[in-house]
């Protein structure tokens, strides 16, 4: 593992999940954004929803740092490239500081990313049921891996002045700075549901929440000590985009026809899970991205050469999606006529015949996949190593990629010709088959970060270009 020269910035870590690191991160970002329009944030791991809140706070896309879905080199290059021109850089961690993908090592943990980027760590500690024992927790995190440099701690959920005095006295003996103190409070609450936080598009009260978070940020941290840690390097080394493009030459279009394929991206509250890198890669490959809404639009964008349905919460909007019958019928016809379509998780659910929601109501969907999908009480979660079982729109038999599953629905009818064989991260045997694939469809529960498999994005652009040429 190589260690990059740091372009500057700070990692926010928790001593475990649920200690308030997202609140701390958003308070810092909201306060910084009132000082500068050039605050660049990042999120460790395959999360979609936390980065939405980052973007609302800063006005800039938040980029995921995931060495399993991409690579260690990609993480370093992505961070350096996105920090160019930024005044401040901040990375929100995942789970506890040393919690890795397998539970047996710290691979893909916050500590792993901090080492890769050579960044200091600000540790958030939930002090609600602690006094002197806080010293043992902080001491353990500080000494477990000397390569991870703790810049200080944030004491969260402090109950009173006396409680703060006990905590401060306990920490005084280890010469580590207390860089923030947040009192117990319920005035700022981010609502959640079955897959985590409610996405930003469903929170009309979000501007008010961000205003209160900015005030919390301004009043709860030691800014003279924090600001130098948050500064991005004003002169980072020249960094090109981390994805290696072009990979190969796409099909040559006829001279009289535009070489730019138009890819319609479903973007609304039902479909909102997209890595910014994926959209950037499509653009870098020459595609024109056209946002649209399956909730609101009666037709897909005119002259679309391909469809991209990301994940999201179609189960929360099943009635509205079902009511848009004109669109469902149009999509069914277009896809059967050969329009390329890439669908992840929520997108797969939308392409099914029926979606059975959390209240056991069945709603008709697009109907190009011969299965119903049903919400369940079981969470399917984790990294998957996928082996392509067949040639399809984007993959060739035997090709392998890394993806991530995170859903509470399941297909009621197994695919008769599965797209993938799956293996859990750290496992030795493949445990399941999954997905639907054909010359025009790629539909899977796997979320892919194309920074780790840009050839998949290129195959999609190539398929859309061929479709465009065929229509010409």
From TrEMBL:
Domain CobQ/CobB/MinD/ParA nucleotide binding, chain residue ranges per copy: 10-195
Pathway: Cofactor biosynthesis; adenosylcobalamin biosynthesis; cob(II)yrinate a,c-diamide from sirohydrochlorin (anaerobic route): step 10/10
The keyword Transcription regulation is assigned to this record: no
CC cofactor: Mg(2+)
Site (Increases nucleophilicity of active site Cys): 447
Recorded superkingdom: Bacteria
A UniProt-annotated Pfam family: GATase_3
Domain CobB/CobQ-like glutamine amidotransferase: start-end pairs: 262-451
Top EC category: ligase
SUPFAM superfamilies for the chain: Class I glutamine amidotransferase-like, P-loop containing nucleoside triphosphate hydrolases
InterPro entries cross-referenced by the UniProt entry: CbiA/CobB_synth, Class_I_gatase-like, CobQ/CobB/MinD/ParA_Nub-bd_dom, GATase_3, P-loop_NTPase
Catalytic activity: cob(II)yrinate + 2 L-glutamine + 2 ATP + 2 H2O = cob(II)yrinate a,c diamide + 2 L-glutamate + 2 ADP + 2 phosphate + 2 H(+)
Signal peptide: none
E.C. code: 6.3.5.11
Keywords from the named record: ATP-binding, Cobalamin biosynthesis, Glutamine amidotransferase, Ligase, Magnesium, Nucleotide-binding
Active site (catalytic residues): 345
Purpose of the protein: Catalyzes the ATP-dependent amidation of the two carboxylate groups at positions a and c of cobyrinate, using either L-glutamine or ammonia as the nitrogen source.
Domain commentary: Comprises of two domains. The C-terminal domain contains the binding site for glutamine and catalyzes the hydrolysis of this substrate to glutamate and ammonia. The N-terminal domain is anticipated to bind ATP and cobyrinate and catalyzes the ultimate synthesis of the diamide product. The ammonia produced via the glutaminase domain is probably translocated to the adjacent domain via a molecular tunnel, where it reacts with an activated intermediate.
Protein family (similarity comment): Belongs to the CobB/CbiA family.
PANTHER family given in the database record: COBYRINATE A,C-DIAMIDE SYNTHASE
Name of the protein in question: Cobyrinate a,c-diamide synthase
């Amino acid at each position: 593992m190589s260690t990059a020269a740091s372009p500057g910035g700070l990692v926010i870590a928790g001593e475990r999940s649920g200690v308030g690191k997202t609140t701390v991160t958003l308070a810092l970002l909201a306060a910084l954004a009132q000082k500068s329009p050039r605050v660049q944030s990042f999120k460790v791991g395959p999360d979609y929803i936390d980065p939405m809140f980052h973007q609302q706070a800063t006005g800039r896309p938040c980029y995921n740092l995931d060495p399993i879905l991409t690579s260690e080199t990609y993480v370093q290059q992505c961070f350096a490239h996105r920090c160019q021109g930024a005044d401040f850089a901040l990375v929100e961690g995942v789970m506890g500081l040393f919690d890795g993908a397998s539970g047996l090592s710290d691979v893909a943990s916050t500590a792993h990313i901090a080492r890769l980027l050579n960044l200091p760590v600000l540790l958030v500690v939930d002090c609600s049921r602690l006094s002197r024992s806080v010293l043992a927790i902080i001491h353990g995190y500080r000494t477990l891996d000397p390569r991870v440099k703790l810049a200080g701690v944030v004491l969260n959920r402090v109950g009173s002045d006396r409680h703060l005095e006990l905590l401060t006295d306990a920490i005084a003996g280890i010469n580590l700075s207390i860089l923030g103190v947040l009192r117990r409070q319920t005035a700022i609450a981010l609502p959640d549901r079955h897959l985590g936080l409610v996405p930003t598009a469903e929170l009309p009260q979000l501007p008010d929440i961000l205003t209160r978070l900015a005030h919390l940020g301004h009043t709860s941290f030691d800014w003279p000590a924090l600001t130098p840690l948050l500064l991005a390097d004003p002169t980072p080394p020249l960094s090109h985009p981390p994805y290696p493009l072009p990979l190969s030459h796409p099909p040559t279009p006829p001279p009289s026809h535009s070489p730019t394929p138009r890819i319609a991206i479903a973007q609304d509250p039902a479909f909102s899970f997209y890595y910014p890198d994926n959209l950037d890669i499509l653009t870098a490959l020459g595609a024109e991205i056209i946002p649209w809404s399956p909730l609101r639009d009666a037709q897909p964008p005119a002259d679309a050469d391909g469809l991209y349905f990301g994940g999201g919460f179609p189960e929360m909007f099943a009635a509205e999606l079902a009511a848009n019958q004109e669109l469902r019928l149009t999509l069914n016809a277009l896809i059967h006529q050969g329009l390329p379509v890439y669908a992840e998780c929520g997108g797969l659910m939308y392409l099914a015949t029926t979606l059975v929601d959390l209240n056991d109501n069945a709603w008709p969907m697009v109907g190009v996949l011969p299965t119903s999908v049903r919400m369940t009480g079981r969470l399917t979660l984790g990294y998957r190593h996928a082996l392509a079982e067949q040639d399809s729109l984007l993959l060739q038999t035997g090709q392998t990629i890394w993806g991530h599953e995170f859903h509470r629905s399941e297909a009621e009818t197994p695919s008769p010709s599965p797209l993938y064989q799956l293996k859990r991260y750290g496992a030795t045997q493949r445990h399941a088959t999954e997905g639907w694939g054909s010359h025009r469809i790629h539909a899977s529960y796997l979320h892919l970060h194309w920074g780790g498999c840009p050839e998949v994005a290129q195959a999609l652009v190539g398929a859309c270009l061929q479709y465009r040429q065929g229509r010409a």
